[in-house]
Amino acid sequence: MKDERKTKKQLIEELNELRDRLDDKNTHWWRTLVDSVPDIIMTVHRDGAITYINHAIPNLPPEKVVGRNVADFALPEHLDITMSTIERVFDSKEAASFEGAGTAGPEGDVVYASTHIGPLIEHGQVVSAILVIRDVTARVQAEEELLDSQKRLQDIAFSSGDWIWEVDAEARFTFAAGRVKQILGYGPEELIGKTPFELMPENEAKRVGEIFEGIASRKAPVVDLENRNLTREGDIVHILTNGVPLLGEDGELLGYRGVDKDITDRKRRERELRQAEQLYSSVVEGSKDAIIIHQDGVIKFVNSAACEQTGFSRDELVGREMLSFVVPEDRELAGKRVADKLAGKPVPGLYEISVISKEGPPIPVEINAGVIDYDAKPAILVFFRDLTERKEAEKAIRESEREKQLILDSSPILIAYQNLEHEVIWANRVAVESVNLSMEDKVGRKCYELWAGREEPCADCPVEKAWETGDHATGQIETPDGRIWLISGSPTRDEQGCIDGAVETTLNVTDRIRAERSKALLEDELKQAQKLESIGKLAGGVAHDLNNLLSPIIGYSEMLLQDATVGHRQQRPVREIHDAGLKARELISQLLAFSRKQALELRVVDLNELVANFEKLLRRTIRENIEIDLNLSPLVRPVRADSSQIEQVIMNLVVNAQDAMPDGGRIMIETDVVALDEDYMRSHQGVIPGEYVMLAISDTGVGMNAEVRERIFEPFFTTKGEEEGTGLGLSTAYGIVKQHEGSIWVYSESGRGTTCKVYLPVTREEVPEARKRSKPLENVQGSETILLAEDNQQVRDLALEILELHGYRVLVAENGRQALSQISAAEGSVQLLLTDVVMPDIDGRELYNRISRSNPGLKVLFMSGYTADAIEQQGISEERFSFLQKPFTVQDLLSGIREVLDDDS
Question: Whose CB among 6, 318, 680, 846 lies 3.0–4.6 Å from 676's, allowing a Cys bridge?
Answer without folding.
Answer: 680
